[in-house]
Amino acid sequence: MSDFTSGFWNWYVALITVLSILGCGLLLWSQSKHKVRIGQDGQPEKTTGHVWDEDLTELNTPMPRWWMGLFWLTIVFAIGYLILYPGLGSYAGKLGWQSSGAYKAEVRQASLDYGPLFDKYLSQDIPTVARDPQAHEIGQRLFLNYCAQCHGSDARGNKGYPNLTDNDWLYGGDPSVIKETIMKGRHGQMPPMGAALGSDKDIESVAHYVRSLSGLTADPVKVAFGKPKFGACAACHGADGRGNPALGAPNLSDKVWLYGGSAETIMETIRKGRDNTMPAWGEFLGEGKTHVLAAYVWSLSNGAGAPVVTAAAATEEAAK
Amino acid sequence: MNAPEPVVKEAVIKMYAKREDIHPREVSGRYATWRWVCVWLTQALFYGLPWLNMNGRQAVLFDLGARKFHLFGLVLWPQDFIYLAGLLIICAYGLFLVTTVAGRVWCGYACPQTVYTEIFLWIERRIEGNRSARIRLDRQPWTAEKIGKRGAKHLAWGLVALWTGFTFVGYFSPVRQLGHEVLGFSLGAWEAFWVLFYAFATYGNAGWMREQVCKYMCPYARFQSAMFDRDTLIVSYDTARGEPRGAAKSQGKGDCIDCSMCVQVCPTGIDIRKGLQYECIGCAACIDACDSVMDKVGKPQGLIRYATENALAGGWSAAQIKRRLLRPRVIGYGLAFFAIAAAFSGALALRAPLKLDVIRDRGAMGREVEDGMIENVYRLQIMNTAEREHLYRIEVDGIASAGIADEDLVELAGATTRAVPVRVRIAPGKAGSGSHPIRFTVSALDEPALRVTEKAVFIVPK
After folding, report:
1. ipTM > 0.85?
2. A76 and A16, same domain (yes or no)
3. Is the domain of A175 the same as that of A48?
4. Any idea what the CATH number is for the domain that residue A193 is in?
5. Which residue among A174, A216, B91, B132 has its CA within the 20 to 30 Å range from the CA of B50?
6. Do A209 and A257 belong to one domain?
7. A76 and A139: one domain?
8. Torsion of CA B186, B190, B196, B197, to 10 degrees
9. Does the keyword Lyase apply (chain B) (predicted)?
10. Are residues A297 and A168 in the same domain?
11. In angstroms, what separates the C-alpha of B424 from chain A's closest C-alpha?
12. Which pLDDT belongs to residue B8?
């Protein structure tokens, strides 16, 4: 596919390239010889005839011939290069080289180099991998590279991005589910419920009822009004508000809030809905890396990470 | 009307010509000995250094793949590139200083181009004979003898060149392993390429290019003239004493007997009696040659000698030349040289084998956690550039009550780097909303002197 929006630029670039090469050749040819006067003795003069600053003359001290040869070689090289590689307008070159191809070749090489390591981990179950110190270190590097932008370097999340170190899971915290989440990504959607619930007052009542589910302070009158309205939410969050991991509907009865647990924030969530995407990493990372990554993430809430250096061991180390 | 223009005869000349071969005659003497001392010293160093081991590894190894540069007890990382810059600046000022005082002595005695040319010429002489024999051989038709001599020469050159290429690559890829690979014909494609490439460069430059490298390719050769002044030592022909030149027995002549030995020994093919020329690399081969001739004809040495323009014009003694050493140009270059060398050595001696980068998590400004504490997350990139493992403690200060909420000890194996996520917490009310400077300190538990501090900011949300 051409990178140009119009065919004109293709010819424009190609023409400039060809003319430049021809121009270089012409320059080399014209500058390899020079006309000089024949002196009194019948021999050509030793100077090139170029005089400046009144009396400075340029002597003709010939350069070695191979030097000129090198310049001609650059032209030969340029022509060869333009035949083999892309460079002449949108002509792709005989070798069909592409930067994306070079990238793919490097990725292929890396998979060959590191493939056996990840294959080894892939043959172990996730809790076993989580106990392997080397896998833990690899997992942490992968996490810092690909996950930390949203979930934070410490995996404790941000507003809208779940904390991965607690035991609260939107889609479930089983090792296999974590791996599936990373491989395929997730798309959690809560539709705007304002219209379904009714007036602003109704929305406020439901918000207070939701707060009461997790034992937060709430106006008992509003809670009583809100409770029957919660039926509209129960389809996803369950009648008791404990959520549904199959849909990724959060448990509303714990103290973990993805967007915040104040009455105002809950009302905003109800009015506008929420749309939350975790991209699928399976194709990009491959199953081997995802497996190690899942083990790292699982270990964060299951205390099975690499042996942490204890203060006692540290003192011992220092004493040595 | 204008007078008719005179007829000008013109001819077309070529601006490029075939290079004339130079066959320098072998020379011995004081300066030739010095050159051989330099050849032996530099080459013993170059060929020998890769074979030296220490700390269970090659003492000098530039591991490009792992981006670690081992220099005896030192491990340099790409972050230490400034030291290479410092070293190059020191070398540059060293060159400036030496050139101002003594001209192109680097070129004449220690430059690899000179050194390898000297080695290749030595081989050439052993196989093809001295200057006249080589000129004869050049003109000879391709007889069996010529083919044999030329073949032997190129074979010997090729072997030296291959060994040089092998040694060079041995600085970048462990030389002992490389040796095994060469012997087992299992050399990697890139290693083989670079061995052959440097072998070819050595063979081509020292065997074929020789003085052309200095005349047409070397940038130093051209800009060294900018450091010359009238008190710089140059290889000079004493015109007043030598001219008019002529046979030794003839009357009314100068000391130069016009034997042309100085021209025959010159590696760049010039006649030093025409005065200082840009081709002169200051090797003093002509001085050695002329001195031995002067001894034979019973005249004092030094018709060609290291002298300055001022000394030649004023007939100065060696002591007078020395007195001109302390001139502003020399003092300036000297001060710059020693200042940079001192700064470089100081920086290298004080260099802590520990590096720290602090990257604040940008995803969140700061969050409120249990008991109203404010928390910020950082990623600490800790590099242990020492060769053994260390246990480090991470500390933070700058805001009262600031503390690390995670494990504050981290262990790093020798010459490794690790990213450590760290949560910093402050108690509520200790800092107003906004950005506050804090400092991270990482120190080795077993070596208190080994510590680095890095600045960061702590953000308290509104």
Report:
1. no
2. yes
3. no
4. 1.10.760.10
5. B91
6. yes
7. no
8. -170
9. no
10. yes
11. 11
12. 67
User: A237: domain range?
Assistant: 188-278
pLDDT for B421-432, tens place per residue? 999 999 888 888
CA distance A158 to chain B (A): 6
A35 and A72, same structural domain? yes
To the nearest 10°, report the CA torsion of A41, A44, A48, A49.
50
A135 contacts A295 by C-beta, under 8 angstroms: yes
Confirm or reject contact between B381 and chain A (CB < 8 A): no
pLDDT per residue over B273-326, tens digit each? 999 898 999 999 999 999 999 999 999 999 999 999 999 998 888 899 999 999
- Does residue B249 have a pLDDT over 90? no
Domain count, chain A: 3
In a domain, A312, yes or no: no
Q: Which of B8, B10, B409 sits opposite A309 (nearest CB)?
A: B409
Residue % of chain B over a pLDDT of 70? 98
Domains of chain B: 30-226 (no CATH), 232-314 (no CATH), 354-460 (2.60.40.10)
Question: Which residues in chain A touch residue B12, judged by CB atoms under 8 angstroms apart?
Answer: 33-36
Strand stretches in B258-312, DSSP E: 304-307
Q: Provide the shortest C-alpha distance from residue A60 to chain B (in Å).
A: 7
To the question of pTM greater than 0.80 for the whole model, the response is no
**Quick one: what percent of chain A has pLDDT higher than 90?**
62
Answer whether residue B404 shows pLDDT above 60.
yes
Q: Are residues A298 and A173 in the same domain?
A: yes
In whole angstroms, give the CA distance from residue A204 to residue A263: 7
Check pLDDT > 80 for residue B176: yes
Q: What integer is the mean pLDDT of A81-90?
A: 91
**B446 contact A CB<8A:** yes
Q: Does B461 touch chain A (CB under 8 A)?
A: no
Residue predicted with more confidence, A26 or A55: A26
